[in-house]
């Protein structure tokens, strides 16, 4: 599904987080960024993925990484998800799907024999200068940190 690949420039984005604060890709210049796209806050797979990243958060920080999650959920839903699971990183609320589409992770999915459009669970590792270092499209929700680190 994803056509963005290692070596591509990450699309610039501006999006609000769970606290309605504007977050931009340029805020992370000089830092490595883990940008993980997930289908829906508080669902089992998304919770497992976010909690796995939370449980290894200090390891990410020690290696110079910042983490951002992003889905099409509203800021209030993102805040509830963050608070319930004590997530130490921001969750972006891309209700317009502008960022989701710019990273090319929106498209047809199948579930129980039905086809629908949705977010493909994908993680982008972005370097200090805004270039994509790695794309993980086959996310293991319970062990995602080891796929990244």
Write the layout of secondary structure elements.
Elements (H helix, E strand, L loop, with lengths): L13 E3 L5 E3 L7 E6 L6 H12 L1 H6 L2 E7 L3 H10 L5 E4 L4 H5 L3 E6 L2 E6 L2 E5 L5 E5 L7 H5 L1
Parallel strand pairs: 3-4, 4-5
Antiparallel strand pairs: 1-2, 3-8, 6-7, 8-9
Q: Kindly state the number of beta strands.
A: 9
How much of the sequence lies in strands comes to 25-35%
N/C terminus separation: 23 Å
* Main sheet summary: 5 strands, mixed
**Total domains:** 1
Report low-confidence residues grouped into runs of 5 or more.
Answer: none
| Class from helix and strand fractions | alpha/beta
Approximate shape: globular
What's the tally of helices? 5
Please write the string of helix (H) and strand (E) elements. EEEHHEHEHEEEEH
Find the CATH superfamily.
Glutaredoxin
The Cα radius of gyration reads: 14 Å
* Average of per-residue pLDDT values: 96
CATH topology, anyone? Glutaredoxin
Q: What is the CATH level 1 assignment?
A: Alpha Beta
The CATH architecture: 3-Layer(aba) Sandwich
Helix fraction bin: 25-40%
Order of strands in the sheet with the most strands? 5-4-3-8-9
